[in-house]
Design a protein that fits this description.
The protein is an alpha+beta fold. It contains two helices and six strands. It has one domain: Alpha-Beta Plaits. 19% of the residues lie in helices and 37% in strands. The two termini are 18 Å apart.
């Protein structure tokens, strides 16, 4: 099992969530966060200066079986991409154990209902 965490543009979140749903990833958590990247610049739009160093982002987190890792990453990559600086990051970490509290199911069976 792997934990996938992604930081994406707030404007792309609904598209990313839909892409993950289409990739059969229905269980995820997200938080609205602010972040700062390496770009240090300002933006002037219609005579008003905006600080774009601190940008609204959405932090997404979910755990998947190993067989679903690549399709999850690809869904995020395709749906969050704009080609501009600040598209976000994806992190993948190993999960050693998972237990469903209600049933006591462990491992892969704790992530999804048995079929």
């Amino acid at each position: 099992m792997k934990k996938i965490e992604a930081i994406v543009r707030k404007t792309k979140f609904d598209i990313v969530r839909k892409a993950l749903h289409e990739a059969d990833i229905d269980f995820l958590s997200w938080w609205e966060v602010k972040g700062q990247g390496t770009a240090k610049q300002g933006l002037i739009f219609r005579g008003v200066a905006y600080d774009v160093n601190t940008i609204d982002r959405v932090y997404i987190s979910f755990v998947v079986r190993d067989i679903n890792v690549e399709k999850s990453i690809n869904a995020i990559l395709k749906s969050a991409y704009t080609g501009e600086s600040g598209d976000g990051r994806i992190f993948v970490t190993q999960i050693e154990q998972s237990v469903r509290i209600r049933t006591g199911d462990q491992g892969d069976q704790s992530l999804y209902d048995k079929k």
